[in-house]
Structure formats: structure tokens, C-alpha cells
Write a structure and sequence with these properties.
There is one protein chain. With 207 residues, this protein is α+β, with helices and mostly antiparallel strands. The protein is built from 4 helices and 12 strands. The protein has a single domain, classed as START domain (Alpha-D-Glucose-1,6-Bisphosphate, Chain A, domain 4), CATH 3.30.530.20. The strands form 2 sheets. Strands 1, 2, 3, 4, 5, 6, 7, 8, 10 and 11 form a 10-stranded mixed sheet that branches. It has a two-stranded antiparallel sheet with strand order 9-12. The protein is globular, with a radius of gyration of 16 Å. The protein starts with 6 loop residues before the first helix and ends with a helix. This is STAR4 protein. GO terms for molecular function: cholesterol binding; cholesterol transfer activity.
Length: 207
């Protein structure tokens, strides 16, 4: 188990990585799934042998409220059907924390429940916000869970210029689920999970 990293340089590196992903040209992405709420693309990850996913959709609400529902905190467990538990293990200054959370089984439990320990950081970006994270090798792995690993992930949320009550939400996700899994099952689960994330989030914001 590694000691906790110094929060400030990790937060800065993480933000820079996400901004770089955000500048990747459209031609490098391939559409993986499209719904009325979101479009999901993917490209080979530079971090591991799986994919970096990009999801994007317009959400009817202000940036701060949307990000409050996504980042670690009381809202997330209420609406995210994939997340089954979450606790903040450490809190740093400047919107940084370390959280441990668990996810439900997927695809008729072909993908068993997973546990993650992530460093999370929320910061301003243009006129909106970026909330991002990366997994840490920290804390004991609990029984009955496989420890997954999130390579740099994040959500950019910026207000639409011509419609301030709506925000463009763009996510970058690259999750290494680990354990013995067929890659095709992982790819199917990731695309549908990201699309469902938008529809679940929209429902939560309306309540």
C-alpha cells in the first residue's frame, strides 16, 4: 500500500492531463454509443490496454449544481445507480479528497462488484468547472470486492453561451476493472454505463 501523495502536485498533473484529453481532435474518436441524452466515443488509452471513453451531452441546469451531483459528496449516492457506497477517507484543502467507493455488479454479474480508492479534485475551468480523479493504491481491499483502477478521469461542465440555464457536460473515463473479464463485456458495460449516467443525472436534477 502506497502512502498518500502530496495533493497539490497530483491535482495539478491531473488537471493538465484532462485538459490535454479535452483538446484531442474529433478525428481520433470513434462513436461507441448514441442516445437522446448523450454520445459516447472511444479511442485506445495511452495509460493501459483498454479504451479512453469520451461522453458528451447537454444538461438542463447550472454548472455548479451539476458538478455538486457528480463530485464526491452526499448527492452522488442518491442518484447514481452504479455506486453502492462511498466514504471520504481523507480531505485536503482546495477541493481535494480521497474517497473509497463500491460499484454494483453489471451485465448479469459477469462483472462482479468493484471497489475503488480515488483521489478527487474539483477546480474552475473556463466559465465552468472540472471535477477529476485518479485511483490510488491506498487502504486495505475489502473482501468480496475486486479493486479496480481509474486512470485519469474527469468531467468538464461549462454553461452554454446562448442558453445559460443549460450546461455542456463532457466526461473522459478510462477504468481498468481488473479481474478475469472478457474485454468485449467491459466495452459493452462502459458505453451503456456512460449513456445511463446522463439520463440518471438529468432525472436527479429535476427532483
Amino acid at each position: 500500500m502506497d502512502p498518500l501523495p502530496d495533493a497539490a502536485p497530483l491535482a495539478s498533473k491531473l488537471r493538465n492531463t484532462l485538459v490535454r484529453y479535452h483538446s484531442i481532435g474529433d478525428g481520433e474518436w470513434r462513436v461507441a454509443r448514441k442516445t437522446k441524452d448523450a454520445t459516447v466515443w472511444r479511442k485506445p488509452s495511452e495509460e493501459f490496454s483498454g479504451y479512453l471513453y469520451k461522453a458528451q451531452g447537454v444538461v438542463e441546469d447550472v454548472t455548479n449544481r451539476i458538478v455538486d451531483h457528480i463530485r464526491p459528496g452526499p448527492y452522488r449516492l442518491d442518484w447514481d445507480s452504479l455506486m453502492t457506497s462511498m466514504d471520504i477517507m481523507e480531505t485536503f484543502e482546495e477541493n481535494c479528497c480521497v474517497m473509497r467507493y463500491t460499484t454494483a455488479g453489471q451485465l448479469w454479474n459477469i462483472i462482479a462488484p468493484r471497489e475503488f480508492v480515488d483521489f478527487s479534485y474539483t477546480t474552475s475551468y473556463e466559465d465552468g468547472l472540472l471535477t477529476c480523479g485518479i485511483s490510488l493504491d491506498y487502504g486495505e481491499v475489502r473482501p468480496n470486492f475486486v479493486r479496480g483502477f481509474n486512470h485519469p478521469c474527469g468531467w468538464f461542465c461549462v454553461p452554454l453561451k446562448d442558453s445559460p440555464g443549460h450546461s455542456l457536460l463532457t466526461g473522459y473515463i478510462q477504468t481498468e476493472l481488473r479481474g478475469m473479464l472478457p474485454q468485449s463485456a467491459v466495452d459493452t458495460a462502459m458505453s451503456s454505463t456512460l449513456a445511463n449516467f446522463y439520463s440518471d443525472l438529468k432525472k436527479a436534477l429535476k427532483t
